[in-house]
Design goal:
This protein is α+β, with helices and mostly antiparallel strands and about 325 residues long. Strands 4, 5, 6, 7, 8, 11, 12, 13 and 14 form a nine-stranded mixed beta sheet that branches. Helix 1 crosses helix 2 and helix 7 runs antiparallel to helix 8. It starts with a strand and ends with a helix. The model has no long low-confidence stretch (mean pLDDT about 90).
């Protein structure tokens, strides 16, 4: 199936109406909630300047013409796809995977297949929890596409409920390695700041003065390098979208290579030795790896504390920075 594009012109009597309301009235086959999501995803544009309009509350003017690009529906249920999996732990209740860079956790617009969910369906057969919904079977938490490291999935509903409750009460131990610009001070230290949608760019998150959700990140310097970068241990006490990347950037120490939050500027890259610069440009993503996860096993209630080796990206970056 192909994408569908609708065109809506603002009549005189609709001037001053919110964009999402205008579109909902003009396109009754699409709910207002669905249209709001399409707007925030950049799929609504105003003819004339070709720019995406990403504010559902934008007041429209008479004569303006908007296009709405609705992506083709994806299959309701992801299909199993055999893919290599680095299994760190597996039993009848759960599986822990060391996720590589570049792998999306579950199907989403733009990523209908080739995800970790597709691989888990092939590996586990029908033994994944259904609580996450048909597109996210077994998924209890997520990692960004370009963040590597440990991720746990549930094989049955009882395990899913137990793990989800532990994540909700922030009792799951999570630790990440990151290479950041500058040297955070003091060390150890903590970063506190509510995280919400960036009002200047709705596709990103930001530390916001009003609204958002409370977030706390603890950090500790593991090693400082001569070029003005350092390796840090990051411990998120909460689990907000892009939390570590946003907090470190707001603190003045963005993660090296981060394409969204200021970690890959040309000026900064020039400060790196040639070998390190090559590593960052080769991977072209944030130097962030989830190396530790700890939680109570849903059935035995014993503590599982699992570790991953440094990622190839971070290993290569450390080696090149050490050579200075």
């Amino acid at each position: 199936m192909t994408a569908t594009t609708y065109t809506v012109q603002v009549a005189e009597d609709k001037a001053g109406v919110r964009l999402d309301r205008l579109l909902a009235e003009a396109l009754p086959e699409l709910s207002r909630t669905r249209l709001k999501a399409l707007i925030e995803a950049g799929r609504v544009s105003r003819l004339g300047d070709g720019g995406a309009v990403m504010e559902p509350a934008r007041r429209v003017k008479a004569g303006q013409v908007f296009t709405v690009a609705v992506p083709a529906p994806q299959p309701a249920k992801p299909e199993p796809q055999a893919m290599p999996l680095d299994v760190v732990h597996e039993d009848e209740d759960l599986i822990v995977i060391d996720k590589p860079l570049g792998v999306v956790v579950h199907p989403a617009p733009g990523h209908p297949d080739g995800t970790l969910v597709n691989a888990l369906l092939a590996h586990c057969g029908g033994s994944l929890s259904g609580i996450g919904g048909v597109s996210r079977p077994g998924i209890v938490h997520r990692l960004d596409k370009d963040t590597s490291g440990l991720l746990v999935a549930a094989k049955n509903d009882a395990a899913h409920r137990s793990l989800a409750a532990q994540f909700a009460e922030h009792s799951v131990e999570k630790a990440y390695l990151a290479v950041v610009w500058g040297v955070p001070s003091p060390s150890p230290g903590k970063i506190v700041g509510n995280i919400g949608r960036n009002p200047r760019n709705r596709k990103t998150m930001a530390v916001v003065a009003r609204g958002g959700k409370p977030a706390l990140t603890r950090y500790r310097i593991l090693k400082a390098f001569a070029c003005g970068a350092c390796l840090v241990d990051l411990r998120p006490a909460t689990g907000r979208t892009h939390q570590l990347r946003v907090h470190m950037a707001d603190f003045g120490n963005p993660i090296i290579g981060d394409p969204l939050y200021g970690g890959g500027g040309t000026r900064r890259l020039k400060a790196l030795p040639a070998a390190a610069r090559t590593v960052v440009l080769t991977y072209n993503c944030q130097a962030l790896h989830a190396y530790l996860i700890g939680f109570k096993h849903p059935k035995s209630r014993m503590i599982l504390r699992l570790r991953s080796e440094y990622s190839r990206y971070i290993n290569g970056l450390i080696s090149s920075l050490d050579a200075i």
